[in-house]
Amino acid sequence: MEASGEAASQDAWSRSTPNERVIAAVANARKSLYAGVTSVRDLGCSGGSAMSVAAAVAAGKLDGPRISAAGAVLCMTGGHGWFLGRQVDSPWEARKAVREQLLAGATCIKFIATGGVLTQGAVPGYAQLTPEELTAGIDEAHRHGMRTAAHAIGTLGIKNALRAGIDSIEHGHMLDDEAIELFKANGAYLVPTLTAPTCILEHADDGKQPEWALHKARTIAEQMQTNIARAYRAGVKIAGGSDAGTPYNFHERYAYEIELMHRLLGMSPQEALHAATAVASELVGVTKGTLAPGEPADLLLLESDIAANLATLYQPLAVMKDGSLVFDRAG
Questions:
Q1: Which pLDDT belongs to residue 7?
Q2: Total domain count for the chain?
């Protein structure tokens, strides 16, 4: 929740202050809710801002979606996201970090299994946390009933995390056929975050993004559509998640991820919406993401049928959360 779509790279992050990040997290929670998103995961913040905002929303002190917060990501020393993470270099350090994250208020845990786009020098295709570190950390999180997610772009890191028992892979753009079989055997979810590299490349000429990040985004984009579409056709569970906060990937535009799942993966509008609601909610474990007796009355009022006009998701007429009207475009 701390990143708003502008300050997302390592250098930009270092120029923001902790107070600015908390303010951004509050604003982004509201933007998400008013765009029709009633439950989210925050999979990486530099301090406790996401946990604090989650608690304030749960207590009714702030407008926002239900938030399952990971807090600091768990990465190897100097690994991807080190500037907003906890650096661990052994199985026992991984276990201790999970325990300390739980103590700090985290409700899920994110591991960094490969390099990434927005950390200089981190190669997306290279594995980072070791299989032993992943296995220990994931086991510790599961012992405490917490869901786990792994940032994993490269093939080996994806398979390392899946073999270690991860609940979801974020990105997964370089997956292969063996990884697809591991997804299916383990019942793990794939969150393709199509919006993240797409938005970076759509604004490649803005002069604001470092060339090293653009180069990595281009490399990923060359494989992303083909590989993720193949996983979808093979029956891997695809859950919607945008990686909001990366460059030009704004919290109020979650609908773009749904549009890209339709356009790039070949999902019907209804299938894309199902991935973004029921499947994503199943992954997060907050609600079922469906309208049924005993479930929260989370409703989105739209101008037209998404089957005919998917773009209607960008401007909801009204949003209800837990049966209460939280946004009304008419005022």
A1: 46
A2: 1
